[in-house]
Amino acid sequence: MKYNRILLKLSGEALMGDQQFGIDNNRISQYAQDIKVAVDNGVQVGVVIGGGNIFRGVQASQGGMDRVQGDYMGMLATVINGMALQAALEAIGVQTRLQTAIKMEEVAEPFIRRKAIRHLEKGRVVIFGAGTGNPYFTTDSAASLRAIEIEADVILKGTRVDGIYSADPEKDASAVKFDTITFNEVYERGLNVMDLTAFTLCNENKLPIIVFDMNKQGNLAKVLNGERIGTLVDA
User: Fold this and answer.
1) What's the confidence (pLDDT) of residue 160?
2) pLDDT in tens, 13-55
3) Do residues 208 and 155 make contact, with C-beta atoms less than 8 angstroms apart?
4) Which residues contact residue 205 at a Cβ distance below 8 angstroms, ignoring those fewer than 6 apart?
5) In this structure, which of 66, 88, 162, 222 has its CB flanked by the most CB atoms within 10 Å?
6) Which residue, 170, 155, 146, is CA-closest to 232?
7) Are 219 and 211 in contact (CB under 8 A)?
8) Residue 96: φ, ψ to 5°
9) Whole-angstrom Cα distance, residue 98 to residue 49?
């Protein structure tokens, strides 16, 4: 395996599968199987999941709700997704720990960096819930922050698109896919890889990002084996 320790960022929307809302059991089972393959091959896996399949704070604020309140609701949505992934992983024999940035001891450990690293070293998948614990920050920012804290080798951003394109490939048929791209090129082209806070955090800490299609079973293993799947963002 090319990487020893990874931070896998999953979107909440992807968990919906073909549904309009909530969690598709087939999709989360597929994610769990792919993560199990990585763990079985000795890769240490941390996971951050969004909450957009349940609630999005930004959209709530656009509808008139207080932004801070909406963001906290979105953080709780990520914990629900984290619990669902935890259940799916443990059902197939993968040991996990769910850590949250907001204390809720009945369902999860509080996030403690040293404990998280120790769990990873023991081969447990650590799922980080509740974002950064602060409003106005996205789960992309949480993924970047946690990846740096646990000293991950790379952030793997699993999406429904197979990489970074010059334009939205779902809207522009002439969009060109990049196999590799630098952080500076992403800034210059104004490409939407992650939100700017998260992206800048990765750039400043020299943490590479790979954007790939997580919805295709087996792609995670291919990325970990060093195959050219998706797009690599690096210095």
Assistant:
1) 87
2) 989 988 889 999 999 999 999 999 999 999 999 999 999 999 9
3) yes
4) 148
5) 88
6) 155
7) no
8) -135, 165
9) 11
| pTM for the model | 0.95
Confidence of residue 68 (pLDDT cuts 50, 70, 90): very high
**CATH number for the domain formed by residue range(s) 5-230:** 3.40.1160.10
Which pLDDT belongs to residue 171? 87
The sheet carrying 180-182 orders its strands as 109-110, 96-100, 125-129, 44-49, 5-10, 154-159, 209-213, 231-234, 180-182
Residues 76-131: tens digit of each pLDDT: 999 999 999 999 999 999 999 999 999 999 999 999 999 999 999 999 999 999 99
Residue 75 C-alpha from the chain's centroid: 14
AA letter at 170: E
Integer Cα distance of 82 and 88 in angstroms: 10
Output the DSSP codes for 101-144: SS--TTT-EEP-HHHHHHHHHTT-EEEEESTTSSTT--HHHHHH
Tokens encoding 153: 């080798």
